[in-house]
């Protein structure tokens, strides 16, 4: 199946040799504001698939508030995700943004043509929730 050519990971796993990726996978960054060291770990970045700036700002503000209340980093991250309705807001963005739709269509075509893709962002999803998981689900739905 085409969706078997789709995987995901986080940038630190790539940098430290912990990512279990197919050797032929194109590493596609999906972050709005990549750093130089992020660019060095991926083959390309598609900022249109990163969460929109206003959602990121609301999330980071809520996360900081949670940390001030004494939650650990992971706890604050996940609580802020829920507080701002991150998952639903990101799904709505993917459906409503013409730019995001265009990139999703391009990635879908690439997967259908047999290319292996690995979606990459910053978060280790064993500890923190991440838009990358939602993005992967969206692509898998397009391919089924």
Top keywords for this entry?
144 residues; alpha/beta; 4-stranded parallel β-sheet; 7 helices
What does this structure look like?
The chain has 144 residues and is α/β, with parallel strands linked by helices. The chain has one domain. It is 53% helix and 11% strand. It has seven helices and four strands; from the N terminus they run βαβαβααααβα. It has helices at 11-15, 36-41, 53-68, 73-83, 86-96, 98-112, 131-143; strands at 6-10, 26-29, 44-45, 117-121. Strands 1-4-2-3 form a four-stranded parallel β-sheet. Helix 3 crosses helix 4 and helix 5 (86-96) crosses helix 7 (131-143). The chain is globular, with a radius of gyration of 15 Å. The model has no long low-confidence stretch (mean pLDDT 93).
How are the elements arranged and paired?
Elements: E1 6-10, H1 11-15, E2 26-29, H2 36-41, E3 44-45, H3 53-68, H4 73-83, H5 86-96, H6 98-112, E4 117-121, H7 131-143
Parallel strand pairs: 1-4, 2-3, 2-4
Helix pairs in contact: 3-4, 5-7
Domain DUF488: 22-141
Protein name: DUF488 domain-containing protein
Organism: Haloarchaeobius amylolyticus
The run of helices and strands is EHEHEHHHHEH
Which geometry do the CA atoms define?
globular
Helix/strand/pairing category:
alpha/beta
- Low-confidence runs of at least 5 consecutive residues: none
Q: What is the percent of helical residues?
A: 40-55%
> Numbering strands along the chain, what is their spatial order in the largest sheet?
1-4-2-3
How large, in whole angstroms, is the Cα Rg?
A: 15 Å
Distance between the termini: 9 Å
> What is the strand content?
5-15%
> What is the helix tally?
7
Average pLDDT rating: 93
Question: What count of domains describes the coordinates?
Answer: 1
Main β-sheet: number of strands, strand sense, barrel status? 4 strands, parallel
Would you count the extended β strands for me? 4
């Amino acid at each position: 199946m085409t969706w078997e050519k789709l995987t995901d990971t986080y940038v630190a796993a790539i940098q430290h040799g912990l990512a279990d990726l197919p050797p032929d996978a194109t590493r596609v960054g999906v972050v709005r504001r990549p750093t130089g060291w992020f660019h060095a770990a991926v083959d390309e970045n598609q900022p249109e698939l990163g969460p929109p700036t206003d959602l990121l700002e609301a999330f980071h503000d809520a996360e900081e508030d949670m940390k001030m209340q004494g939650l650990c980093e992971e706890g604050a991250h996940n609580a802020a995700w829920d507080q701002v309705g991150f998952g639903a807001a990101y799904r709505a963005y993917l459906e409503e943004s013409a730019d995001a739709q265009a990139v999703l269509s391009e990635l879908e075509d690439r997967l259908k043509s047999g290319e292996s893709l690995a979606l990459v962002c910053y978060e280790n999803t064993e500890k923190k929730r991440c838009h990358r998981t939602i993005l992967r689900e969206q692509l898998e739905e397009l391919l089924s």
